[in-house]
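dude i think i finally got it to work??
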Amino acid sequence: QNMVMSFRVSDLQMLLGFVGRSKSGLKHELVTRALQLVQFDCSPEVFKKIKELYETRYAKKSSEVTQPQPQQHRAPEALSIHSSYDRGSTVPRTSISTTNIDYPALYGKYLNGLGRLPPKVTKPEVRLVKLPFYTTLDELLKPTELVPQNNEKLQESPCIFALTPRQVELIRNSRELQPGVKSVQVVLRICYTDTSSPQEDQYPPNIAVKVNHSYCSVPGYYPSNKPGVEPKRPCRPINLTHLMYLSAATNRITVTWGNYGKSYSVGLYLVRQMTSAELLQRLKTIGIKHPELCKALVKEKLRLDPDSEIATTGVRVSLICPLVKMRLSVPCRAETCAHLQCFDAVFYLQMNEKKPTWMCPVCDKPAPYDQLIIDGLLSKILMECEDADEIEYLVDGSWCPIKAEKERSCSPQCPILVLGEDLPSLLSPPPGSSDVNGLLPTPNTNGENGKAPADVVDLTLDSSSSEEEEEEDEEEDDDDEGPQPKRRCSYEKGLVSAC
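look at this
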């Protein structure tokens, strides 16, 4: 580090040109770029080149030829008091000393005074999960642990870095997702310091991020309507681009965080943010599963139900998306899902663009973007079957539409009475009663051999009206002297005579 800081502009340009980095800019910009090189790409070849340039610069002073060796040991020794990354170190952790420390060089190589491991030491590094809506273009700062410097609950961790001309050009030439928001961004990601598996974004308590002279907005908490349930905060990459200097000038970032026992790491990335429409187009390009493969999957699932010892002869699949209760347009599901039911990829991607959960709406199991497939067989069925909202897959892989119940029913809502030849003839009404428009039949008005003139009658009277008429007839019979025949038939109550 001290060797790099002692270089002149020509030495810095030779070093940066050696690794293919930009050589333009003022001296402090070249120094920052060279220190970043030492931080991220300090390979044996780069270190050898730095040593070579240093010895060439001081070759005329023979007494100083042997001086670089003590100097290159002095920097790690001074910074080892700040490093808690090497758990085997016997050096106690102390606060940063302000004596003989070059802060620009320190911040260019370290975050919160935390040094990177020597190249010869191999130790698992913190990794962050890949986010479907973010494509990583460059890694500006590898995940680095936030180390508390004192016993205070509120800690600050500073870092400085500069963008290369190529990175600045990528940002400036990128399209806008919305006014003032570029698609190419510099984002800050924070996660737990855990090397066992890729980590999801996780904010520490009391987080605040300051970029140069302004604070950056951080997603807030989702309100919780359930009693006793703590509100949740959506943890996602924090966009710093709008507060940065889009030039070769250095940017200073300060992360304020709460020290409550858990360890966190932060990283800086140059990313391209994607939209749900772009992810949908990519899925349509590379994620369609051929109809024949889907058909083979249906046959395999129907060959034997895994949850039962009884063979399955068919399974119903709805053509309605469970997310929005609308007909499917792009039927989609995760390859890891065990069901044949699909959901609509358009709405699924839009939902995760606003609030990323990546959970299947059918089985509530993880359905990440890289596991999604478009069902080619169901896509074909949707085009061929426009008048049904449900289909049934059969054991041979074929399918048939299932109509709605009201469409499949071919019988009227009211019962039908079919009068046979053996029904007794209807009796005439009792004396004193009159026909209504001559509609009530008499024993002499039937057809030949006493057959009813009509065979099928649509019932228009309910049972209650029939019972009322019978009660009225019985009252009239009581008033007459002699017994009178009653209007009753041998068939069940509720059925009326044929007209």
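The chain has a mean pLDDT of 74.
im so relieved honestly
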